[in-house]
Fold this protein.
Amino acid sequence: MSWLSAWCLILASILTHVWSLRLDAIIVPPYVLRGDLVLLKCEYDLEEDSLYSATWYKDHEEFYRYVPKSSPSQHRYNMEGITVDLKLSDSKQVLLKNVSLKTSGLYRCEVSAEAPSFTSVSSEAKMEVIALPQEPPQISGEQKVYQVGDIINLNCTSAQSFPPARLRWYVNDIQVGADYETVLPPPAPHSLLTTVAGLRLRVAAGHFSDGRLQVRCVATITTAGDTVGGGGGGPPPNLPAPAPAPVQQHRLAPLSTLQPPLDYNKEALFLVTGSCNRGSAQVILLAATTLLSWLIT
């Protein structure tokens, strides 16, 4: 082969690369809520190419394909946890309906061009489905008259969720360590989970400086950081409890991988009232619970 032929081949390769199919972005929300509508987008530029197919995979298994020259052009494949709305899906996006915990996984978009380039490009991103608790946590403990120096034994149980909630104890709005915290074994794969935490507290006169002793249990689920979970290690002891925040809901998941973190907190309250001068206090378990925050921006 002459040097001229070689340069022609190199030039043709460069031009083919410059003017052929290019994948600009795959947009998969990092987390969504169970039951949401979720829009997955694959942004690409065909340049001088013609589209042969756009295909979506979950965990390396195909569930949707768009082939413009086929009739019909859309094809969906049965997969547990995946329900595609064909009316709102096309060559560059797929709408998933009523997502469940089984919808979580690794999603990949693959775009292929027709001849002569036969270019194929792909990208992938992970999505987690979160199931928030439907009820606040519950505190259980013996209702009786306590003397200063007595031990109060309390248990806090979160409502079912996924991932499991992290439980934190606060005494008079100061965080204290739990005696134990455990997640109950799930009854089956992809099941919701329950967290249980215990607190053993010795009643002291200083607890009643304002005439009452307040114990709170706060359940937290957050997506802050690299993973979805119950808040990681949480704030260190002796920090004030989190402040209330407004309730916000989005049923259509945001279309950005730079999605703001979800920060969910609900609390249960256990109140001891009385006077330290009498050396005793009456325990009242409040039936009412307080919504601290449910923030999904």
Notes: The chain has two domains: 19-130, 133-224+262-276.
